[in-house]
Amino acid sequence: MIRTNRIATFIAPALLAALSCLAPRAEAAEAGQVKSATDRAANWLIEQHKDGTFGKGDLRKKPGVVGLVVKSLCAHHQHYRESLGPFITEPVKYLLKCQKKDGSFADNGDDAGLATYHTAMAVQALVATENPKYAPNIEKARDYLLKCQSNEGAFGYQANARQGGDLSNTWWALVALKDANLNPKDDAWDKARVFITRCQDSKETNPDMVVKGCNDTGGAYYQPGHSEFGTEQGRGGSGPRPYGSMTAAAIEGYVLCGTKADAPELQQAIKWFNRNFRNDQNPGGGNAGYYYYTLAFARAMTAAGVDSIEIGGKQQRWCEVLADGLLKQQDKDGFFVNKESPKWMEDSPVLCTAYALQALNLCYKPLKAGAPKEAKAEEKKEEKKE
Amino acid sequence: MRKTAILAATFSVALLAATVHAGEDPKAAAEGASKKAADFLKSQANEDGTFGKSEARVVPGIVGLALNALVTSPGVKADDPAVQKAAAYLVGLQQNDGAIAIPRMGNENYNTSIAAVALKALNDPKHKDVLEKCKKYIEGCQLDGDLGYKSDEHYQAYGGFGYGSAKRADLSNTAFSLEALKALGVPEDSEAYKNAIVFIRRCQDNSETNDAPNMKGGENSGGMVYLPGDSEFGTIKTRDGKEVPKPYGNMTYQGMRSLIYCGLKADSPELQACWKWIKNNYAADKNPGGKGSEGYYYYVVAFAKAFTAAGQKEFQTADGKTVNWAKDLAAHLVSLQKEDGSWANGDKRWMESDSILATSYALIALNLCNEAMK
What we know:
The complex is a heterodimer of chains A (386) and B (374).
Chain A: H1 12-20, H2 31-47, E1 49-50, E2 53-54, H3 63-74, H4 86-98, H5 115-128, H6 135-147, H7 167-179, H8 187-197, E3 231-234, E4 237-240, H9 244-256, H10 264-276, H11 290-304, E5 308-311, E6 314-317, H12 318-327, H13 349-369, H14 372-385
Antiparallel strand pairs in A: 1-2, 3-4, 5-6
Chain B: H1 2-23, H2 26-43, H3 60-71, H4 81-92, H5 108-122, H6 128-141, E1 161-162, E2 169-170, H7 171-183, H8 191-201, E3 235-237, E4 243-245, H9 249-261, H10 269-281, H11 296-310, E5 314-316, E6 322-324, H12 325-336, H13 355-373
Antiparallel strand pairs in B: 1-2, 3-4, 5-6
């Protein structure tokens, strides 16, 4: 419960952080700037809270959106929890009201069209509150999610689908199953792993890749043989175009399924970013899904334990560069919104701010800790003191 | 050879410093130090009402502390240009909602509370409306039922105040806000104080009066922390191996003074517990429970204001020594003052390496010491 290593804020740190938002930004964001950006984003989200939901319009009632916001606040460096205010307790109560008998989460007017997505987000939020009271709710949701897995190992938007499914829902479902402590030996993991390999542009590991169109880039796309961004012409012919958000989803998906760090499919996906990483766009997809991508990418690098990748020909810490891209997009009032593309509901500032805040929370951790070498030296110092 | 020379030189400088202080009457030395400090602050006054050259000079809270330091200095007149310009700067920053703040910079409640206390100390009738608006704004910042907070559910926040836009209560901002509300004449029977007591109690390592689940298992030292379950100086291990947030001087003195403002009597278990901690941890030269000199200048203000509010000049510490807080603190502050009249913390935490901030804190405390030594 008690956190010793947090940078405390009274008087000056908050003032300094506030001032840093006025200073010009470097191409690599610094810890103080990122901390200040997370504070402003969190404060903005908290201000949007009313009666358990955030913002305006019908989207605010979606448990997936409420879950994303709650998780973004719980993961913030100030560790927002229920005991700190109604902006956590009320949304959590709202989520619990949204849970159906079968364990899934949906709001009343919903046709349950996105049940997997909503349920996965709600589970993450409930787990993030660290309140043991919600264990039964989480367990029911976990059982529901398991029913959503198709024979192919994929998760789609709904339960009991024999076929279909996509990498996005699969990834989120896996994240939620992990948060809900699904047994690592459950065969859901291996089934999902096989599905992910079928979404990857890889000669070596994609079992479908006898099919034409493999360019062996290592990137991933939405479904076996299908990208949301059309096709790409490469040396191997014309194939589904891999893109950033799905390649990141594949990376974390692999890690969650227990894939070893040196496995070729995982390594190849990470290397895809050496050639394709961008901090201003979802690479391969342009502006569409940019905020979703920033979160997927930050999660992927964190899960894979990667600190730096090749960006523009040199090794750079992804946390610095990704955060820099996000900071340039932040509105003066603290929120984020995709001004270039409304696809996947990214015209919603609440949704984009929740994605961005989660991504920035993940950038802030390694930034605060310093580069790995420094971090190790610090650890040694600490040991000596004791 | 060279070493000896350096040693000799160091020695003679130290000796000289010691003679100067030893030869002077401590009261006169403290009064002289106050005058020098006020002159330093005046020399740093800018045309726009701010002080110094640092980036942080625009922060209303910092201008407010400098203004408060000048206004409480006996030799500084109310019509001094530095005073008038600083006051005008703060008034000019008042927003429609009453906050004295720079839009989008955050920390609205912190800035407004400090600015209001400084303006109130000026006692100028032309600030009546400005201060009334400040009062309303600060009252609105309390995390209470009006904002949907419930005492049991939100036990880390209920009744407290935070920085403003950041909705997280802490004892430091709670103390600044209560000081302002008290100064602005919020009546003693107001709900604001009753609700604040709930929060302050939960910051105290005292099982008799603290019901916060995350404060259980402490050593009943009576000391206070930043917010329930959370200290700025980490945790301590209790005898039975449990980790609990570490109480420290800054918060204990701020909490004690706040409880007095909220109307608790000296014999209340909460204030008795504060005294227990103070008698076991009395120090004028460091923030007890803290680390090195971190936050020392914030501490001296908290220390001097708490003893002033308690009305106690001398008392016996746990080891039987009779101490006079004003004499002890004044002597230490005089010894730390720089040639130009300023102070600065060698440690940069909480911005105390900024000489405007550190000098303002030190001067506010020193003026209270001088008042108590009269």
